[in-house]
Specification:
By secondary structure, the chain is mostly beta strands. The chain contains no helices and 55 strands. Helix content is 0%, strand content 49%. The strands form 14 sheets. Strands 1, 3, 6, 8, 9 and 11 form a six-stranded mixed β-sheet that branches. Strands 13, 15, 16, 18, 21 and 23 form a six-stranded antiparallel β-sheet that branches. Strands 14-17-22-19-20 form a five-stranded antiparallel β-sheet, with no helix packed on it. Keywords: Plasmid, Signal.
Amino acid sequence: MPMSLSQLSIFDFPNFSPVADISSGARTEAESLSIGRGFQVKSNPHPSGGKYLEANAQGSQAGGIFSGVSGYYDLSLGYFDESDGSAYMEILVNGAVAAAFEWDDPSGTAIVTAAARREYVISDLELHHGDVIEIRGASDGGEPLRTDYLDLSEVTPLETAQSFDVEAESLRILSGFAVVRNGAASGSQVLQHGSGTVARASYTMEESGTFDLTINYFDETDGVSEMWVSVNGREIDRFDWDGTSGSALANSASKAARLLAGLELRAGDVIELAGHGDGGEPLRIDSLSFEAKGAVDPDPVSPPDIWYEDGDYVVVALNDGHGGFTEVVTGIPTEVTYDTIARGGASFMSADLNGDGLNDFIKVTHAGPDLPDIPQGDWQVPYSFTVTTEVYLNGGNASFSLSETSQETVSLYIQDYAAYDPDLPDDLFKAYAAGDVDGDGDVDYLASSYLGESVYIFENDGTGAFSIQARSYLEQGYSGNEGRLADMNGDGFLDAILLTGYDRNSIFVMVNDGSGQLTDVSSSMPAEAPPGNPQVVDLDLDGDLDVMLTAGGDGRGIYTYLNNGTGQASRGPALIPQGDSSSGGGVGAAAAADFDGDGDIEMVTAAYMDENYGAPRGLRLYDIVEGADGLEFEERSYDPTIVGSVYAPADYDGDGDIDLLVQSAGNRMLVNDGTGHFSLSAPIVPGFVTTEYSWVPRVETGIFHSADEFVF
């Protein structure tokens, strides 16, 4: 009998969206799971992969996405049940508890040894492709919830979908239809268009599978009605009822059928029939027949698209699933002003604001009178200005419409040192990153003001209207400040990572208390120039997030900010330095990800050079390894034929490995062969004029169209 999921979790964690892969037929090491909070990766010779997850907080959470074929599975959890405590663990599927148990075996050892190994098995667990599998637990005493692995072995596949029929009169009537008696109909009743311009009715699928759908209706000879069919709001068929060989009456002679073959349908999908009658043919529907053809294929995965500012508008480039891109100009104006350099009059962020799985846009602008003069002897003056936030929702296939506009008055004190020669408009106010900062389920955003020494969280009220939630102090640098959001201390709330401009030249981590109030906990100054090109990733695989960045000026190079799990820097950075700015050479951009699929993080750069040490430019891949003095970059491969600034790592061609984009005689893709070896593609999008430039033009990824919208 399949496992029933009904028990409630004892934990109350914030929303958690793991990305780690959990496959069937292969072991998933616990240390490869996405960590929600409270776990860290530890090394030990006894677990199967030489590492395990260990609790470092009162409550711990980790998980991943099931990528196998839907079916019934035996799930085995490997762990170490030590004798010096009684830990507690839950195993959940899509938030429902499948099993909960205590680690209370007294026969083991008080430390991690082979004698403490245990395995907990859940039999006949129903899993579907895309399900979220999660572990939650609480340590106890000297038993810190040491978790080794997950194994999934398929017991039986899900039952093949069964054929079935649905009488039209049982459909949900949305408009215009009425149930009318008819002796020629299969159930002696039909749905008939009775009023209004359009009649609509729907049916919600109760099972999944591939079906041939037949719509049975009466096609009379005294009119030409029209009907269209949609699934989840997307039209899949439209046809005229234009038969001439039947009858002018709804009888056996005028019966007709429309076949829609090979529909992949899932439980919960909504099929809608809509149309209008004509003349003496008032759109009479008899029944729907679903003929099962097999199990449904796994959900298609939407490929990552990209977006950027190009001149006067935001542009998205839609991916065809194989790394081919088609530009779509969104019509969202950038309000660019051109001076001696291109300067942005707006901040843009992209996130899914309405929960439909597609990225939308947030545009932030500000306006106010000229900056005031600061009287001699004063060190600050009060100042107010207006911030306008616009939300552009994605209607599908990258078509955007303005859905909400909100304004907020920002009042601050302008500091005398900052007002000397500001880089406007960004030094007055700049928005950086969007995410759910306060854990209420909607998207907020991070911004700052150099002139006002302030960092802001703008809160979403749930409808797309934004206002100041919290203001925190931070003295920044002029021109070139950047920000990111990430959970740096494992408490489930997004914290702020600020890279400050000239004079400060630092990276700051500011921890969020859950209300958007930020506290500076640690900082680092890599070089005598502003850092940029920040990437947040677990570089040392210790279970928390680190930052890789590039710095210029004296001591310029590629640096890391290594986190100790609280947001504070734990140890000296791994780096590739280049000495002072007179040494010759360049840094360029760098990217970090698991490029060769071995579970570790590598770094790639194609613009770094150092003339003093005979290091010419070219594509280099570095392993990140533990050296004698800490974490180090160790060069593994070099290709002198590929030169440029790399950015935006993602799987663009859908083959399961991480590719890169690169500025190299245009914007191109570095196609990964799965082992960390790259080939250079032809240009994927034309050159563009950007108003956002750090070490590379700002190009971001997102999902702007679904996998079944390849219409180009």
